[in-house]
Specification:
Layout lengths: L2 H23 L5 H9 L5 H13 L2
Protein name: Cytochrome c oxidase cbb3-type subunit 4
Keywords: Membrane, Transmembrane, Transmembrane helix
């Protein structure tokens, strides 16, 4: 067996892996997970703690 046999086999494996990743990424059941992940850069735990502290103290 030489490289001429393994090159097309590797191409097929990579292609099906790509299709699997695309199917996973565009699955409608994952929309909520991706929406939550998109909000992570905007979440500031320190600001949230200050907001809660101000609400508890009535300020």
């Amino acid at each position: 067996m030489d490289a001429g046999f393994f090159a097309p086999l590797f191409t097929l494996v990579a292609f099906f892996a790509f299709l699997g990743i695309c199917a996973w990424a565009f699955d409608r059941n994952r929309d909520a997970d991706f929406a939550a992940a998109a909000e992570l850069p905007f979440n500031d735990p320190e600001a949230e703690a200050e907001r809660r502290r101000a609400l508890l103290l009535g300020r």
